[in-house]
Amino acid sequence: MKYESIKELKDTLKGIVDFGNNIEIKILDINKLREKVIDRLVYNAEFNKDSNIRDVSGWLIYEIANQLEIKPASIQQLYELISKEKVSGFTVPAINIRGLTYDVARAIIRSALKENIGAFIFEIARSEIGYTQQTPVEYIVAILGAAIKENYSAPIFFQGDHFQIGLKNYHNDSTLEINTVKTLIKKAIEAGFYNIDIDTSTLVDLSQKDIDEQQRLNFELAAELTAHIRALEPDGITVSIGGEIGEIGGENSTVEEFRSYMNGYRLELDNRGENIKGLSKISVQTGTTHGGTPLPDGSIAEVNLDFNVLSDISKVAKQEYGLSGTVQHGASTLPDNAFDKFPHSGTAEVHLATGFQNIIYDSKFFPSKLRNEIYAYLQDKHANEKKPDQTDEQFIYKMRKKGFGPFKEAIWNISKENREKISESLETKFDLLFNKLNIHDTLETVKECTITVNIKRKLPNILL
Hints:
alpha/beta, TIM Barrel, 2 domains, eight-stranded parallel barrel, two-stranded antiparallel sheet, 10% strand
């Protein structure tokens, strides 16, 4: 699968993609591109040890996708329609892919194509970029490649999830931590992430009696990062920005907290300049935790999710602040019968991750030898993270997300037959969730309202 040279890469594209003068490309045979080339380009963009081959493979995927009208986009315009209640009745899923990214993205897109779906988001969190070893560019390249492979032609929404200010890091060196997040935002936007979820909710101080003081650092830094994003966004693009008022896994959010956050945030934003556009949505805490809560046997505890929090804050968000509504995190391990409640509660967006990770790891088609190797690695390398009261099953459940990075290529190289079987299970799950979230027939609305622009990525040095 790996190219040995740029010449070999170019030779495999003869009659399929014309390089021309190394600057402009032309697709000559789209069917052969999908059948014979795109898998290999994605693999080399991810894993080739030669940085020149990686760069050229990734650049080609961006360029091919651009020509096929598969463009990274902001969901801002759709959320503005939702805020004005010009469209309604559905909740947008935002999906974190931690491993098998190309195959999982293909399963998502196949599911979307069945029901004419355009309202869905691919996202990756700050922490996931680290432990899954996927840079923003690598993540986008794999998913653009999946869209090319599956003949999906529409705007695609990429989102930076939980671009978070770490509490411990902030207390150690606040300037360094803020600048680290700002640098991440810059890299993400340059890659094509035109949706960014700012998470400064880690700095909410519930020891303060006054709600404004509890939320102060949260809204002050959210405004600072918003201004930073607005200074970086490309011409013609309005990045969709999300805020967060309650750290997931903490106390349930209230309308009073939301108003305090938004009023303080707006005042801070106004102080930074005229007409700086603010948030499009707000993340709240309703009783969930990321990944669910594992019981001693490794099964997941039932969650008492408060849908009233979602509906009450969504109503105020739309009517008083012009937002699209609330965002629910930590939802993928909820029972299936919970998901059709999100559209009815006015939830704008729901974030899904661990449930799909579980389908991959627990599949009978995931090689047991590889699974055991990953688990042994985690027990060795992350032994210091095991809590005294955790069983082995609880520890592995919480830690196995960190196996995707060190074993990224090994997982990617699971046999084609087994990957297809795992993908079939994922696709069935996506079919169910997309139906319950009621996002069918949203493709034309997305195409009509979404603004896309041609943004040329820097030509790899070797092609100059």
